[in-house]
What we know:
Blueprint: H1 3-45, E1 50-51, H2 55-58, H3 63-66, E2 70-77, E3 83-89, E4 99-110, E5 115-124, E6 142-149, H4 173-179, E7 187-194, E8 200-201, E9 208-209, H5 223-262
Parallel strand pairs: 1-2, 5-7
Antiparallel strand pairs: 2-4, 2-6, 3-4, 4-5, 6-7, 8-9
Helix pairs in contact: 1-5
Amino acid sequence: MSRAKFWLFSLSALTVFILLVSLGNWQVRRLAWKEQLIADVNSRVAASPEDAPGPDQWTDLQPDAAVYRPVRLVGHYDHSHEVHVWFALNEPRGGPLRGPGYLIMTPFITTAGWQVIVNRGFVPEPMKKAQSRPETLISGEVTLTGLMRFDEPKNWLSPKADRQKNVWIVRQVGEMAAYLDMDPTATAPYWIDLLKGQGVPSGPGGVSLPQGGETRISFRNSHLQYALTWYGLAAVLAVIFLLFLRKSRRKSQPAALEHADSGK
């Protein structure tokens, strides 16, 4: 290998090595951020409910700082529209119901006049339509407590909502509010997951329906695995480069000896 090619290869290897180590360092920083976020959320969920943020606070809301915050609000439901989110309840927390079904997302008009989408809880598949559970359609003014939630991640692989059948998978406030015919200027940029026990005792054995308290508080935290992967690749590259240097040195030694002999 010529000297120019040797230095080009060495520079390329060094550049890739620095890149891999930098990616590993970035994942370590993300790991610290994610662990702090999880700790903050755990302490946040245990806090006493505050008044739900109104329109004057929406522009300053930071999802990472507000998600899963316990809030309370007063107003009444608009049961003329609902969003049905398909949900497999395998490990219930808010009651005895389990299996496939739907989360019922309903518009809620606060006494202050603004609106928010409320996840009232889980119902079994046969009770998807509001007509099948008229006793659960609470009327009049009520006080609710729940956890603030924000748009779920969505990309080109995410299942699209079947608006004709009213079956949703990914929840995003703007899309649900448009389907529910809610005024976008008066609709909160979050929804509320009701806590346990705010439905109506209407199921078998007096089960509260919809079954609230089924919020899954979880964060994907794979940053440590990613960091180890990047560092591992950097280590492999370093070993390969050292072997390359060793091989290059062995090849250069006979050539140097031959050159020395020819000069005698």
